[in-house]
Amino acid sequence: MTSKSIDSQRFHGLDSLRAVAMLLGVLYHSLVFGMMVGGTPGTGPMGQDDSSRYLGDWLHSFRMPLFFLISGFFGRMMLEKYGTATYLKKRWYRIGIPLVIGMFTFGPVYILTRDALSSNMGRPGAATMPFGDGELPPPPPGFVPPPLVRFDENSDGSLDGEEWKQAQVELKKMFSGGGPPGFGPGGP
Question: How far apart are CA 17 and CA 29, in angstroms?
């Protein structure tokens, strides 16, 4: 099949739209990071409130669909410009080969790392304590991971001795049963 000749035309408006969406992605990911570091909105070091969560939700609602729309538009233009065979060849070199290389390099590295850090290698996929069955170290002062914020009774941003003991009891209960409901082995 011969490819059709289409005049090369630059769509500067779409380039600008893509650039703005990427910059909004930087803002979105900084909001997400701030909420992860600070726990729930309103308790973070950057003083997040609910408006940052709503802004993040709003940005997330249209950014990725916009990227798919732009990608489909340019993909259709490439198909018309080069024809099916050349289009598929270009897609293979640009997307397929990096995907296959990544599957056989990063995939095994992830699996080996996950298994090396797991204390329960006999049960693949089972939720385990990251430090084995020993005593877990407390989080550093001034940083309480989001799942543990509920144990910070005096709201000082760190867990003291009694608060940390309560958190450990809950963590051990959660991880000893194979994780949250629905993540363990099936059965009656």
Answer: 18
CA angle in degrees (0–180, nearest 5) for 50-55-61: 125
Q: Distance (Å, rounded) from C-alpha 62 to C-alpha 47? A: 25
d(CA 69, CA 61): 14
State how far the alpha carbon of 9 is from the alpha carbons of 12, 35, 74, in Å. Answer: 9, 42, 11
User: pLDDT digit string (tens) for 32-68?
Assistant: 877 766 554 444 444 445 677 788 889 989 999 999 9
Q: What single string gives the DSSP state of each residue in the chain?
A: -PPPP------HHHHHHHHHHHHHHHHHHHHHHHHHHH-STTSSTT---HHHHHHHHHHHHHHHHHHHHHHHHHHHHHHHHH-HHHHHHHHIIIIIHHHHHHHHHHHHHHHHHHHHH-S-TTSTT----TTTTSPPPPPPTT---GGGGGG-TT-SSS--HHHHHHHHHHHHHHHHTTSSTTSS----
> What is the pTM (predicted TM-score) of this model?
0.48
